[in-house]
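Section 5.1 Outputs to date
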Amino acid sequence: MVRDGDCVAIFHSIHRVMKAEKALKAKSLEILSIPVPRQLSSDCGLAIRFRHELLSEVEAVLLAGEVEIAEVWLKQDGAFVRLK
């Protein structure tokens, strides 16, 4: 479930999702792997959900780990807004 104020990071492959999850959990960031919401993609892929307040920290950790984020979405007022 994605709540208002949550971000969803989408990656190009399951391998990148797993690598991102490992790097973020190593930094004790509060994240959760979730199925990509249907509003964002019809693929049966995984994404990472986190609070919007953590966005810059999540991006910094993934940049350091050389994990590229394909898209970042923010759920706001019940709808998704693309941030990246």
